[in-house]
């Protein structure tokens, strides 16, 4: 039973997504992970109850895992945001305490209940599932999007803002996430193909492994993931090196053929560093013309390596201020604004939200401190040691696959699929050797009353957990509906949906924030229809809900930005709201002191409040920390011009025309 549950889990994780949730891919994968962790753990507990003994296989990872979990618990207790540390950052989800507990339980459940035959089947399920996702990604590259089609918005790529033909991601949601999973699995496919003389394997199985390897590698090239390709290169080098060292020339022919095939595919398709042999002229053009869309850390704008270095500097600053237990698991988005390097303001992503350090190791250092960082590295060390004990071709392939995760995590962060592999690969290397070991079977016959009571208790606990997860899932669907209604200027419908979400999950700050947005919009609509009394009721409700959201997550600067916007929107009901907006932005500056947009917004508010001297100081601060801030410079120059300081005004207008926007017509009219 447990092996079947693992097979289903491993098959679903690469493929599952839903269009009705706020995040289409990772949210649904983490929900799937939670559901199957509960089911597997419950069946495992029932097996132990039936067997009248604890079914638990000791491994060298037990204490490293326990220590790692204990430190994460302590870090969560002292976190900047306890709820985020438990559930994960909303929209990312993976990495919170609950997810790590799930992975650890799955590791122990796997080593305690699986044998060699079960292990091979479970790996095949994951390979097939990722193969299907990769095939869909290849179709995506040629303009046929199965994900868009299944969501009912056409079978082309039009449903995505990102240029998915240029960089595919299929059912994973991001090219680097797909690439990281693929490079972990390709060495494992290698391992399946390296069969010793005398071992029996059907030709059709070998063909399947060869064919799937090519599909996965082609998809890897279509992701254009530099971290993925680097991870593959290192994993391939380690795999080939260890195979040659252990088995000498026994498999050299197959290794050469594999690598020749990959070189040919690289030549035909190209990589981020080299063009296709058929499209050299197009490649040269693309070097100077960026046609892709999306975050610069993935494509376009400031070079991704430059931004990463800046974000990494911020991560180190966080650690130096929270050196022992960090800011709490998954709280990077709340900590980074406090310590954002000024250099970040000069990049194209100066006003982006960074919820990860884009380096798994620095992310742990910043959010779990020295203790968490050391325990994480210690866990990795023990996993590598455990993997290294399996000297078979398959064992070496597992080691190479795991090391590729370490490489891709250095340039990014783990997601559900890679985290699952991170914890299951060391389990697989153990269970793969248990060919003849007898496993306890779940036979519910001749149970005594005590066993029946324990099984009933286990079942009830499982049902409660499943019920709570389903509520969490349903609340997100309501929240997503509300968000979409608000974006389409239908706040009445949005309010209906977000009210349902809040009934289920009243401690979710972003739900209160969304409700505040809808109620403020309703207030404005009523005021426009001369229903001021009703509008005032909704205005008061909106300010209450916005304050509720901020109090639930005090270090979330974006909630404070939304709160100031709501106050500004409602000034027609009460002029004091403008002062409230000013105070809110000042509080936001405390937790995000290097955000030029906040000083710009504060300056605009102070103009409305007739605090011109304060406004000038804040605009000066905005251009000090972001010299190329065109809007702040323009308003600053306009203010100086209004008060008769022409030289200072022209200084700012000249800066815009010479260093920011030479063709800015509005600035040209102001510049004398």
TrEMBL record:
It is found in: Membrane. It comes from Candidatus Woesebacteria bacterium GW2011_GWC2_31_9. TPR repeats lie at residues 475-508, 596-629. Pfam families: TPR_8 (PF13181), Wzy_C (PF04932). Residues 212-377 form the O-antigen ligase-related domain. This is O-antigen ligase-related domain-containing protein. The chain crosses the membrane at residues 32-51, 63-80, 92-111, 123-144, 177-195, 207-223, 229-247, 254-273, 361-385, 397-425, 453-474. The keyword Membrane applies. It is a multi-pass membrane protein. Keywords: Membrane, TPR repeat, Transmembrane, Transmembrane helix. GO terms for cellular component: membrane. The keyword Transmembrane helix applies. Its main location: membrane.
